[in-house]
Write a structure and sequence with these properties.
By secondary structure, this protein is α/β, with parallel strands linked by helices. It has two domains: about 5-185 and about 360-390, 3-Layer(aba) Sandwich (Rossmann fold), CATH 3.40.50; about 205-355, Glycogen Phosphorylase B (Rossmann fold, 3-Layer(aba) Sandwich). It is built from 15 helices and 13 strands. It has helices spanning about 15-30, 65-80, 90-100, 115-120, 130-135, 135-140, 145-155, 165-170, 220-225, 240-250, 265-275, 290-295, 330-340, 340-355, 360-399, and strands at about 5-10, 35-40, 55-60, 85-90, 105-110, 160, 180, 205-210, 230-235, 260, 280, 300-305, 320-325. The strands form two sheets. Strands 3-2-1-4-5-6-7 form a seven-stranded parallel beta sheet, sandwiched between helices. Strand 8, helix 9 and strand 9 (about 230-235) form a beta-alpha-beta unit.
Length: about 400
């Protein structure tokens, strides 16, 4: 049995890829007899759902920002000093700061470029994530944020990324290849009882699940839906662009065909996938989308953009469709094709169910567990060598 600390910025009942992943990882490690603790940010200091979990959850409430800034550092310092196996999937800037004092080696999972995401969400850049990496003016404008990112990466003992795309991205930050391991995201595949069902109506139901930001491709989906009369759209999630997308939907005359569901529970998302005929995720960037894996495991074909790690899961016209990001015409054509050819849609869905078996959660957990244990062993060996050298040096000095 090992003591394992998992650190994340979001955790259930909040939704999102890191929240789902850390909860599943914690459950799996606990079932393997590890003593697991989770530190997370939360709207409140306690949640009733934690009582049923086979591991400890330490929530730091962000209800008061001033108090949060103090308490999150204190909580991290306390827990990091107690654990030898530490896996960080969020709050990395706080972890890097605290680690200057507690000196506890940790493994860092990187799922994107938080500097770019923040800049995009605040309207401070219109560049794609790839163009942002080499844009000189951006590097000057966001120099402080880039330095903070480098401190986080340098502080980590090892880096985990979920896709080859992200490995190349992180290498571009100056991280040596040997410090990076690709461990793909996994899901329970396929969903129990998932089958490919032919459409029972003439209308195609498209689903989007994700945070409503200016780079997730929601506006592209709405514009594509404008001229597809046989298409209904369900949008699950919330975020800063919610009012804009609702207004855009009204301006396009889609109020009766687009349903904004807001944030749903995990079960609510599963129900939405069961109602849908296709998942659409034509974002400007994805590391390796949990949503695409979940939809595939539920028997849904996916239409995704040709960005990030999407094409490491979805192969065009084999198990889904790939379209250029922000290309309204190509997305409309893809949706129209699925609306008029249900045999083709069902074929893609069946292939997606087969594909997702290769993204098994048990394999993700096993590889993560082994990496943590290996890094802990290397640390112990390093400590032992340093101890021997120190003792030898003391003996020589005394002689």
């Amino acid at each position: 049995m090992a003591k394992v600390l998992l650190v994340t910025d979001i955790f259930p009942p909040q939704i999102g890829g890191p929240a789902t992943f850390i909860d599943r990882l914690a459950h799996s490690l606990a079932m393997r007899d590890h003593n697991v603790s989770v530190v997370c940010s939360s709207p409140q200091g306690h949640d009733a759902s934690d009582a049923a979990r086979p591991f400890t959850v330490r929530r730091v409430s962000f209800a008061s920002r001033e108090r949060y800034e103090v308490m999150v550092r204190l909580r991290l310092a306390l827990e990091m000093s107690r654990h030898r196996l530490i896996f960080v999937n969020g709050l990395e800037r706080y972890v890097a700061q605290v680690n200057q004092i507690v000196r506890s080696p940790f493994v860092l999972k990187i799922v994107g470029d938080t500097v770019w995401e923040t800049a995009r969400n605040r309207g401070m850049t219109h560049l794609s994530i790839d163009d942002f990496q080499t844009d000189g003016p951006s590097h000057v404008k966001f120099a402080a944020d880039l330095r903070a990112r480098k401190r986080c990466v340098d502080a980590a003992r090892h880096i985990v990324v979920p896709s080859e795309y992200l490995r190349r991205l992180v290498e571009g930050w100056g991280v040596a290849r040997e410090r990076i391991t690709v461990i793909r995201n996994g899901t329970t595949s396929p969903v129990t009882g998932a089958v490919v069902r032919p459409r029972s109506s003439q209308r195609l139901r498209a689903l989007f699940v994700g945070r409503l930001t200016n780079w997730k491709g929601v506006e592209t989906l709405l514009l594509a839906a404008r001229d597809l009369e046989a298409l209904d759209v369900e949008i699950v999630g919330d975020g800063p662009m919610w009012p804009h997308f609702v207004e855009l939907s009204a301006q396009l005359g889609l109020t009766d065909r687009v349903l904004f569901r807001g944030r749903l529970s995990a079960e609510g998302v599963k129900d939405a996938m069961a109602r849908a005929h296709v998942l659409v995720l034509t974002s400007l960037y994805e590391g390796l989308s949990h949503t695409v894996l979940e939809a595939s495991a539920a028997g849904l074909p996916c239409i995704v953009s040709d960005r990030g790690g999407n094409e490491e899961v979805v192969k065009d016209e084999r198990n889904g469709l790939v379209v250029p990001a922000q290309n309204v015409d190509r997305l409309a054509h893809a949706l129209g094709r699925l609306a008029t050819d249900d045999v083709f849609r069902c074929g893609l869905a069946a292939a997606a169910l087969d594909t997702v078996r290769a993204f098994d959660l048990a394999d993700t957990v096993t590889r993560t567990e082994h990496l943590l244990l290996d890094e802990s062993a290397r640390r112990f060996q390093g400590d032992s060598v340093r101890s021997v050298r120190s003792n030898a040096k003391s003996a020589l000095e005394k002689a």
